[in-house]
Amino acid sequence: MKTAGRTRRFVAFLAERFPAEKMSLQAMVQKKEVPVHRWSWAYYLGGLALFFFIIQIVTGLMMLFYYEPSVATAHASVENLTNNVPGGALIRNLHAWSSSAMILSVMLHLLTTFAMKAFGRPRELTWVSGVLLLFLVFGFGFTGYLLPWHQIAVNATKVGLGSIDAFGEYLPGALSDLPRQLRETIQGGATVGQATLSRFYAIHVIVLPLVSFGLLGLHLLSVQLHGMSPGVDKPTGRTEKFFPLFILKDLKVWGVVFLMLATVAICIPFDAFLDYPLAAPYNSLGSTPDGIKPEWYFFWMYYPLELLPFWLVAGGMAVLQVGLLLVPRIFRGTSRKVLKSLAAAAAIYLIVITLFGQAIYEMFSGGH
Amino acid sequence: MRALSAATSAALLLLAVETAHAYPEFEQAIEKNAGRTIDCAFCHINPDGPEGTKVGQIGSLSPAEFQALNRARTAFEPGAQVESPILNAFGNHLVTVYGKKKIVALRADPLALAAGLGDSDLDGDGVSDAQELLDGTHPLMSHHGNPWRLLGVNLQRAWFELIMLVLATLFGVYGISHLIRWFGHEARSALGGDEESKDG
Hints:
The structure holds two protein chains of two kinds. Chain A is mostly helical. Chain A has a single domain (33-293), classed as Cytochrome Bc1 Complex, Chain C (Up-down Bundle). Chain A has helices spanning 2-17, 25-30, 43-64, 74-83, 88-115, 124-146, 151-165, 178-187, 194-226, 242-267, 299-307, 310-325, 327-330, 336-365, and strands at 33-35, 239-241. Chain A is globular. Chain B folds into two domains: 2-144, no CATH class; 158-199. The longest helix of chain B has 41 residues, at 159-199. The interface between A and B is medium-sized, with 34 and 36 residues.
């Protein structure tokens, strides 16, 4: 009896999230309306993230023709692409800059969605699939960072994977060896080497894109089925047609953003921000150069890891991840005012730690 | 006077042979000035400097390369075309421009090394070698430089492509704006038609 009841509730839950009567072009596209109010700009952030994802796919596919996933030739193949292939530097810069832009827009999308309380019933699965996409985007960043096989790439990956080992100290008995085994499984051996590069390459170009397509499909289907959330406590009552008006406005935004992205990609090589010894081919026999750091979008957890006890930060990360997935349940009854304050606090933390993380680190670690 | 000059040259040659490492004064001064980390690959073939047996280090040189190295070591005065096998193109360029004697003397004022380089730009990235030396960016890597300087240079270099890009975007946005207006007009017309038919 209990099982039958649970099954019925589960079916009812799914039926509410995926209403069959709305699964038509007419309901999902032609009749869909987008609310118009002072937070309407936030409705463009998801589309922007999708736009950068498309650029990632296109430029990534182009680079696949030249990239060689071998420790002996990976760096040289990237150098060849940058210096000798017509348009290669531009494609690589577009890929690098748009990856950062994608992560930024996904983070902003998450914060604004949270602030607008767009995760409420029946949009829980839209939120959960979005959070999982955020995790995937970080996965793309982490695995893609290793592929050029330069000093900072390999050493930062070593540091990142090495932090898994630290969990062992907090596990009892035989379990304490589990993190090391997990790390070696991920990296394919005792150290970061060819097996790691092969695995990260496969994960970056096959596994993560396939999972992303599935999750993105679910996310977009959910968005189209339930429409955009009202987003504000007092709706203006004004709306605009999703098709064609909102789509066309989205395209305008994409056009302007592409102009900005292309200008930056043409004019500023992404690697110019690195000290050149960090961009030199990885040398397993040489000393580790100074300044090994992850990409800017990991600073929010990198600097706390450097400054605070590991157990505290790791525990905080675990709570944050589970908390993000459970947002629709935890904040079900919270007002938009409180949600906006929380989102603003998170945004301030992210901005401060990203821009001033190094200065804060030097201040608290005595300049070392 | 001549004897003194010859003696100085001989002493410098001996010094160069005996202490065959990169001059750390230059590296330290550039790092301090630029706030960027550099290594011996700024001027040398090998990032760990000339001593050792790895590629570009003295211990790995063939007899012919040794001869080239000794020729470069005797280039005390400016103007000599040198091809030292332990130096990269920028390092050799420095020896050509200054001569070994002056380079050794500039260890007391390392950043003055930039002053005599003029407008030379070995990697062709639009930022002069002198400026790259002061910025701590590699003078032989065209995609490496101070990001804001590269932005300025590339905005000027790619002005035609950028203007085309701006025009394409403007035309696209203009076209889409007209489409939006047209659809809005159509929607209002349809609404008006509906209301008329309702009234009728």
